[in-house]
């Protein structure tokens, strides 16, 4: 804008001069114009220099000197600071560079020209020099330890612009910058203190204070210091291979602290953060990666372990790792000729103890084993194998539910069975069960369970039941001797547990899962459609109902162009999207390309869906 205005002024002078010349008569043709000068522009402004452009409009009787005068006050003259134009053959436009200026300072400048008639001046222009980086001092380093120190500095001048950040930068090489390690200690001028942390022991560091303003970053003088020997630094390896009486751990010395490590290894005990006064295991030959085995532990007991290393400064420790040895829990396998037919699609095989269903005991009752097994053949032969191989002992039925290693195979008709075994008394029971849902939320109330159906394909009891607001539990064989509730209403089941509440009426798809002994679970999901293509948008589900003929959830609804997903229980914990032929949990939104009336179906077990425009 300044340049445009200056050019306009120059043009105005030129027009004026042309007009004067045009007004001259032949008699007055030799009359000279009065000397006239213009100050056109300022260029290339730095922190200590600037270029000012002058223009001679009319030279009059001639100039003996031309240049630019300047001052920090208005209306500068040649009696103030000035810089003369020094070219031998001056042109009408002349450029003068002013140097030695003060940073971040406002100046007033005018072109001048001196001749026989005196000195004439052009228009006044102003400019402000740019700031420089801040000025600093660096404080001596104090409070030096093996891994920390205290430093600081002082911003003695802001360089003409606000200081936005300050601190110290440090490195193990000289002349550190803010690209190395640094502290951040406020802004503005004045003194500041800095804390250096996570240093290496017995190491020389170089330090400079720094401060940043709009001109850049300035640095103070460099100082140096050397840390003391520090404690070694280590990592502790998580405990693996945990058994009832042992575990495997280890560690690594990642920093020797600046001095030779004399001993290293593992400390362990029953109290958190064990030390050398507890149990100690030497780390062996590989300090940067050592492995040790802890043995002689108690069953089902919590222990703590840390790596350690010692140098001249003392002993350093790695992370404190907690682990618990295995309880005295028994796992028996149930190999037989039924496995492949009963568990289709699984890795289990016939008469293979390591790939067969299991019964497992609990910590509270280590001799009492339990599990659920499906026998899919008309008649099924099987045994108890106490190991995942045939090394034994292996038990058959000696009669009356008595287990004997010399007895023949156990024979069981088709069905879903609850298996219990007593490892101390060597007895067992196998009770065929049919499971259902009972409660005042169910169609039969508390009088009788509504049955579920067992699916060998997914090893679950499944079914869809219309529930009202109320409560329910799972029960088998019309007997309260076999019932499960959920004490925390969290999808886990406990024998005889609390009633499970239902708040919203609807059709609920059930899955009852007895696959893992002593860790039984369930789901009960009502399904709906959600998305910006639905009447409720992304806020409210449009509920689906169960089609008993086609065994799918269904919904007929008007949709607009947008997207949809399938969602359970009016919440996002369980939702499906993606490919309609293979829906995935949390999958992508399903597009609806055309508005209209649609029939939607959803199979909660096959995880397929259809979206059909009517």
UniProtKB/TrEMBL annotation:
InterPro entries: FN3_dom, FN3_sf, Ig-like_fold. This is SusF/SusE family outer membrane protein. Residues 232-328 form the Fibronectin type-III domain. It comes from the Bacteria. The keyword Signal applies. The keyword Signal applies. Keywords: Signal. Residues 1-22 form the signal peptide.
